Amino acid sequence: MASTTAISRARVRAPWSAEAWRDTVFVVSGVPLQSAGWLVLGAPWTVWAPVRATPILVLAGTSVVVLLLALRPLTSWQRERCWAVLGLDIPRMPGLGGGRPWDPLRDLRSPDLWRVLRYHLVAGPLLATGGLAVIMMWTAGAALAAFGLYAWALPSGRAGHVGALTATGVLLLAAVPWAAAGVRALDARAAAALLGPDRARELERRVEDLAEKRAGVVDAADLERRRIERDLHDGAQQRLVSLALNLGLARETLTGVPDAAMRVIVEAHEEAKEALAELRTLIRGLHPAVLEDRGLDAALSGVAARVPLPVRLRVAVEPRASSTVEAVAYFVVSEALTNVVRHAKAGEVDVAVERVGDVLRVSVRDDGVGGADPSGGTGLTGLARRVRSVDGTFRITSPAGGPTTVTVELPCAL
After folding, report:
1. I need a labelling partner for 151 at 20 to 30 A (CA). Which of 134, 186, 234, 284 fits?
2. Same structural domain for residues 364 and 335?
3. How many of the other CB atoms lie within 10 Å of CB of 331?
4. pTM to 2 decimal places
């Protein structure tokens, strides 16, 4: 397998292969473009070479301006060369990809501008030197390899000398495709890194864009939950309340009804009340109306009042956070208290919610048996996911024997 790979690689790097000539064409075509930066920078000095300080400064400034004006076409030609010969597509930079030729003069502090200058003044000339070396290797290799063909026309010499020169030419011809491939790879990498958009900045922009989109999705989901809560509260809940009232009224006022029919009415009345209680619980789980109307203090007070344990609640969240962050904090406390009641065997619970700068901190601590494991299906995994959806942090400490402390930090705008 290794030998087959070596043979195929040798074929690709043979002097007569298409890849060798493609690399050579790419490298050679880059020599004038990669040398153009310094040629443009030095062009004004060929016209006038002052000896006094002030004219020298003026001429130096003129050279820099001429170079900046030439950056856009030079960069565009380099990208076209990469695409035409290698099929390498280098995207345009946001600040240098279009517009007027003098636009680079307007923002000399642009990182993109300085990356392009590094290519045309540093990397480009070095690569042009490599291209010139490839040209010399092809020329010298071809001349020396053919030395034996025209040695008869030269003064008589030793056959060993002719053979050594010919062998040297053959070795040069064998090595030049590898040299051309190396210069081509360096040139393509430098062009992609310095003439295209900054990958680090592009990744930062993508991360920011994804964060904004995720925040939009979270906010949209919260708005949808609130809409469903309002629809259920104003629609299905009111109908169930009316049904329960009518069944209760029928249960209390109807007389002379057969026992079987009365049992049906009573069962229907109880089912309606249970359905109404379940619906109210569901509505509170979607988005409690009191949270939107009166804030976290009132909403969490209602949650603590329904817990069959002593709950010490401290809330200090002025100014209020966004509705999405408040909803996450509410559900964290609600689910944590539910876990305490179901699993902790605790005697009391401490709940603290406070805003410190741009962070909303939530802490739920119980004196139960401890040993809470987020992977144990106690709802802690879902809580952690909900917290991470708004870039918050979720921590739990629960040693065997207790106590268990759930700590959440949620970022919120000032």
Report:
1. 134
2. yes
3. 19
4. 0.50
